[in-house]
Design a protein that fits this description.
With 449 residues, the chain is α/β, with parallel strands linked by helices. The chain folds into 2 domains: 1-341, Rossmann fold (3-Layer(aba) Sandwich); 345-441, ANL, C-terminal domain (GMP Synthetase, Chain A, domain 3, 2-Layer Sandwich). It is built from 11 helices and 20 strands. It has helices at residues 15-18, 22-43, 45-53, 75-81, 119-135, 159-164, 177-187, 196-208, 233-243, 354-363, 398-413, and strands at residues 99-104, 114-118, 143-146, 168-170, 191-194, 221-224, 246-251, 261-262, 270-272, 277-282, 289-290, 296-302, 313-322, 334-340, 345-347, 350-352, 367-378, 381-390, 419-424, 439-441. It has a 12-stranded mixed beta sheet. Strands 19-18-17-20 form a 4-stranded mixed beta sheet, covered by helices on one side. The chain has a two-stranded antiparallel ribbon with strand order 1-2. Strand 17 (367-378) and strand 18 form a beta hairpin.
């Protein structure tokens, strides 16, 4: 009997790339780094001007470490150069005629920024999406619902990556919950991609509509992105228990492309496409390079995207990269995201991330999992408050629930909230079919981190 595996039985989408030994992978990165820096210098006015002013040239890149000589860019750079000199702006390195697709950021931290793609950029983007879908076990016999926004959102086209591997794809978009539940019940798809908060809310709505997500639906894999919940064990377990499905976290940036990193079956960080992205970690205050495994701000350099190369882009994401071998056999590093620099706040000299608060809320019984964080000033000091919903069948008093949550937050974070407010089930206006708004910053002065 033949033991030759069919292509659908193979473990990796691109075994050569995904399992490349670290030394070989770094040689691959250096080759492409030299090419992209030269391309950026010769074609993007911003890079040519700023590097000339700094006395830098593409010839200065002879090793991966040489990249440290070059200046950072960030969202502010993108906004200040967007539309300058041309429609695509000074960071673009190709003429508009070569661009076939643009997405934009949400604008949640300022003016929305464009992300342009050439045909080759877009094809590489979708091949990477196919890699992630294959990595979580999606195969041609799966039915897949892409329940993400298609309106300028860079994650919208990721459905093409699923189609490219042969899955039956249902372009759900932002259907109303009732309509999406109809699709799930009628078409019985096996995989869905949405946000963590909406995955939870959709499961709860299904139960209220008399639909048991575990037994009446066929969802066996849930992909989440856009929020940190998918990598928070308590949140992941709550969603998995609700659906009877395995949850996988994806991570993407509108500045680069849809999903740039994804869980494998071991859920130990998210493998990042190191053939497309060179990762650095820097001190959030000084910009000093930190060794792999150290927590800091993640900085990305795109290695193959020609339309708008990003050279040393400070993402604002706080986390670290683990480059030790993964049990799945893939050699690309795994990123762990702690939170956004924009969202982090300091209380009594303690760095507080909303993801830590979410972990506590989802680990506590008797509350719905919905929450709201208020950050405010009190006596010239930064404080925080948390609001949650109590389950209708919870026999404890509001004061008891508040005390329980306050103690749990103190144990996890090191500093308790100034107050905890308890609402009835449905009393918080945080449910959303996209990203949920969970942080209200009421401070009048800036607090440097």
């Amino acid at each position: 009997m033949s033991t030759t595996k069919t292509w659908t039985e193979r473990k990796y989408w691109n075994e050569e790339i995904e399992t490349m030994p670290r030394e070989q992978l770094e040689a691959f990165q250096l080759e492409h780094l030299k090419e992209i820096v030269k391309h950026a210098y010769e074609n993007a006015p911003y890079y040519k001007r700023t590097w000339d002013e700094a006395g830098l040239s593409p010839d200065d890149i002879q090793s991966l470490e040489d990249l440290q000589k070059f200046p950072f860019i960030n969202k502010i750079t993108q906004r200040e150069t967007q539309g300058v000199g041309s429609f695509l702006g000074e960071l673009a390195a190709v003429p508009e005629d070569d661009v076939v697709f643009i997405s934009t950021s949400s604008g949640s931290t300022g003016v929305p920024t464009m992300s342009p793609f050439t045909k080759a950029d877009f094809d590489a983007f979708q091949d990477t999406e196919s890699r992630w879908f294959w990595q979580i076990g999606m195969r041609p016999n799966d039915r897949y619902v892409h329940a993400l926004n298609f309106s300028l959102y860079v994650g919208g086209p990721d459905v093409i990556g699923a189609q490219n591997l042969g899955a039956l794809c249902i372009w759900g978009g932002t259907l109303p919950s009732e309509r999406l539940l109809y699709v799930l019940k009628t078409y019985q798809p096996t995989v869905i991609w949405t946000s963590p908060s909406y995955a939870w809310q959709l499961g709860e709505k299904a139960k209220k509509a008399g639909i048991d997500p575990k037994n009446d639906l066929s969802i066996r894999k849930i992909i989440v992105a856009g929020e940190l919940g998918g990598s928070i064990p308590a949140t992941r377990k709550a969603i998995e228990d609700l659906w009877g499905a395995e949850l996988y976290d994806f991570y993407g940036l509108s500045d680069i492309f849809g999903a740039c990193a994804a869980h494998c079956e071991y859920h130990d960080g998210l493998h990042i496409a190191e053939d497309h992205i060179l990762v650095e970690t820097v001190d959030i205050h000084t910009g000093e390079i930190l060794p792999p495994g150290s927590v800091g701000e993640l900085v990305y350099t795109t290695l193959q995207k020609k339309a708008r190369p990003l050279i040393r882009f400070r993402t604002g994401d706080i986390g670290y990269i683990d480059q030790t071998p993964c049990k799945c056999g893939r050699t690309h590093g795994r990123i762990h995201i702690n939170g956004r620099k924009d969202d982090m706040f300091i209380v009594s000299a303690v760095n507080v991330f909303p993801s830590d608060i979410e972990a506590v809320v989802h680990d506590l019984s008797g509350i719905t999992g919905e929450y709201l964080i208020r950050i405010f000033e009190e006596n010239y000091t930064c404080r925080y408050a948390v609001e949650v919903e109590k389950n209708a069948d919870n026999p404890k008093s509001d004061d008891e629930v508040a005390a329980e949550l306050s103690a749990a937050l103190k144990a996890r974070i090191g500093v308790k909230p100034a107050r905890v407010k308890i609402h009835p089930d449905g009393g918080l206006n945080t449910r959303s079919e996209h990203k949920s708004k969970r942080i209200i910053d009421e401070r009048n002065q800036e607090y440097n981190i």
